[in-house]
Amino acid sequence: MYLTKTQEEMLSGAKGVALAKSMELIVKIGDVYNANQLIPIKSAQVAGVSYLTVGESIFSFFDLLAKDTVKVKVPTWLNPAGMDMKNWQEMGISSDFAEKQFKIIKFYESLGIEPTLTCAPYLIGHQPSFGENLAWSESSAVSIANSFYGARTNREGAPTSLASALTGLTANYGLHLTENRNPEFLIKVKANLDSLSDYSALGYWYGKNFHGSIPYFENISHLDINEAKMLASALAASGSVALYHVKDFTPESSSVDIKNIEEKVEFTEYEKKGIYEYFKQIRKGVELVAIGCPHASYEDIKLIHAILQSREIKKNVEFWIFTSSKTKKLVEVESLLNDLESRGIKIYADTCMVVSPSVGGAFKNIITNSAKAAHYLCRADTTMVDLLPLKSLMKEVTE
Amino acid sequence: MMEVRIRAIVEGKVEGSILVSRSAISFLGDIDAKTGKIIDSENSLYGECLKDKIFVFPRGKGSTVGSYVIYGLRINNVAPLALVTKEAETIVIAGAILADIPLVDQPDIDIFNILESGDNVIIDTNEKKLIIKK
Predict the structure, then answer these.
(1) What is the DSSP code (8-state) at residue A317?
(2) How far apart are the first and last CA of chain A?
(3) Which chain A residues are within 8 Å of B98, Cβ to Cβ?
(4) Given an 8 Å threshold on Cβ–Cβ distance, is B90 in contact with A156?
(5) What's the complex ipTM?
(6) Taking CA atoms, what residue in A is nearest to B90?
(7) Is A312 exposed, middle or buried (0-12, 13-18, 19+ CB in 10 A)?
(8) Residue A24: closest CA among chain B residues belongs to which residue?
């Protein structure tokens, strides 16, 4: 791979250990994927924030980085933490866990990273532009950046996105190259997509069957950002899919090559039903409803409020919505908060059901409308899940 | 004895007993960084420990935080001797670089038809070889 003199210097260690290790990650991965050079990035989004997922090993990595004074070179945002940074006690988080969590975020902030603590930076004003190169790591955000906005990012690892943030560079391979963005399977969507969870079921089904490939969906009649993020997160969770195209909706759908697609498959009501059946594990007593995977937008919260009408959440059921603190602080959301809370719905910021110890394992029976959330939650041996559309799950847990 | 050509990603020369997973590995969720044990109950290697073994698996999957789990295995002294996979991806490569665990991929034959847990192999990244001793 061609490196400039400055890049060579960083790699050699002349600019310190942290930058050398960062360059080693980027260059070695670039070599594996036959990158010809490094390219500048516009922004980075870094995973590896929740103490639950990173554990103690993150501090050894921080020690390595702290050997030099380094700062990020581009706007950089953080993935969700393991707790609501304000209301962690209410979530049942121990003070030991909270202490570690604060320490992790403090370190990232010392690097100049903005502690947005969300998997959906595009919902809080950080939408990428068409054609921009990025280094994002949260798999659903990667897919949204590529698919919905037409920006270009590979599915970075937590450490590689940080390495790119610190150097302002990534290797030029994979989804940064136009020729790698063509679809491989054409999916005719015959099933009705009536709810957010239907988009999630479609994504989960595709990822399960066509791992790591790029789909081109046709016959979808509606795709807004809230639907797109359900589709994206499920595709990534079951199939590591980092880019999808939807005819008439996504920005590259008209320019990609669909003539050479050999495999054409249908997604019918039968396949859709199959995904709901796959997650139907709860036999008795729902304890928690978990919404906000990916993080809820204002529209998502408004929709729940509208479906709730005058009803209340049953006494023995917890109902948690996860979002970013920036969304929670929106005037429109704040105006709904009291009403939602008085009827049994809590909104937690900065965290989610996938990365907080207060959810998976802590509750035995959890309903969600997100296939990604269901996928990760039912991994805890003690947790059973059920994937349901919002309207059906609200019916089940309200009175 | 049988020689397999491989691609070297993280350098090293090691010899040891192998653990073979038939299914893809999500290091976050499937492996406990503290103990090095495989904690995915659906994996036939459930309960086995990676420490000082050569870990053979078809591919990585799942959360990108998996790289720190691999690094954690090193810090907690339960790291495998080496990682062997069909096609390495970013999570595994980054983890192996950070943890300095030899990593090879692209074996020129389908080793999953030949290898079984407990077999002894030598990995030599200089020679770009994996030698199966059975």
Answers:
(1) -
(2) 63
(3) 21, 25, 61, 159
(4) yes
(5) 0.83
(6) A157
(7) middle
(8) B97
**Cβ–Cβ of B68/A55 closer than 8 Å?**
yes
Q: How far is A161 from chain B (nearest CA, A)?
A: 10
- In this prediction, residues A179-196 reach a mean pLDDT of 98
Are A157 and B88 in contact (CB < 8 Å)? no
Average pLDDT over all residues of chain A? 96
Cβ contacts of B34 on chain A, cutoff 8 Å: 55-56
pTM of the model: 0.91
Two tokens, residue B80: 């495998």
Chain B nearest C-alpha distance from A338 (Å): 35
pLDDT tens by residue, A120-139:
999 999 999 999 999 999 99
Domain topology for A5-178: Aconitase; domain 3 (3.30.499)
| Structure tokens given for A44 | 């980075």
pLDDT at B66 over 90: no
Check for a shared fold between A5-178 and A280-397.
Answer: yes
Q: Is residue A43 over pLDDT 90?
A: yes
Q: In CATH, what class is A280-397?
A: alpha beta
* Domain total of chain B: 1
Residue A84's Cβ-count burial label (10 Å; 0-12, 13-18, 19+) is buried
Q: Across the interface, which of A32, A53, A58 has its CB nearest the CB of B28?
A: A53
